[in-house]
Amino acid sequence: MNIGDRIAKEMADKGWSEGELSRRSGVTQPTIHRIISGESNSPRQKNVEQIAKALGVTAEFLWKGVSSTLTGSETPYPRTPSEADFVLIPQLSVVGECGDGHLNGHIEIEGGLAFRRDWLTKLSVKPEHCRALYAEGASMEPYIFEDDIVLVDTSDRLPKDRTPFAIRRADGGISFKRLIRQLSGSWLLRSDNPDKAMYPDEEVSAKALHDIPIIGRIVWRGGQM
């Protein structure tokens, strides 16, 4: 057995999905999937330690299959986070494209990601208005990277200057763009990536922007360092 097999077995013994292990460990679900599938056979030690703590085993056990019991100095991740402290934010089945738009025929909810209620309060957002989805592409780097988790406030859809939003495109795709207001009153849909030959600005009139379905304002993004 390799590290991916051991993680998969521990997950199966506990009845956990990749999403559940991600929630408990803080390691992104795509990263966990790559380790389990064997696509990533040399994962970062920090990720392995976080996964091991969540599973209640040692990192050495996941690497080598030995010393599976935690020592007294190692504290496992809490098994049952309190609903009073955490809230499950619905995860959209789509992938948000940091570029021309990832084509999506429809949007569905698939599971969710846990966030601390007090942390959401500090962001000044209400849990019932939030949605989470994964990013794809490089056009919003260095603000958003591929596989980052992006949190969107669907109650905040009024265009604001220099603010990033999730936008539903006419072709059914989802894009992350920063809105820039022009002196003329028109707007730019801008990618943060400075390579404008690859990721040019898109100019739209105020009326055209009004007709573009804005899903919500991006309030947070997180991923690997």
Automatic annotation (TrEMBL):
PANTHER family: FELS-1 PROPHAGE TRANSCRIPTIONAL REGULATOR, PTHR40661. GO terms for molecular function: DNA binding. Residues 7-62 form the HTH cro/C1-type domain. This is CI repressor protein. It comes from the Bacteria. InterPro entries: Cro/C1-type_HTH, Lambda_DNA-bd_dom_sf, LexA-like, LexA/Signal_pep-like_sf, Peptidase_S24_S26A/B/C. Keywords: DNA-binding, Transcription, Transcription regulation. Pfam families: HTH_3, Peptidase_S24.
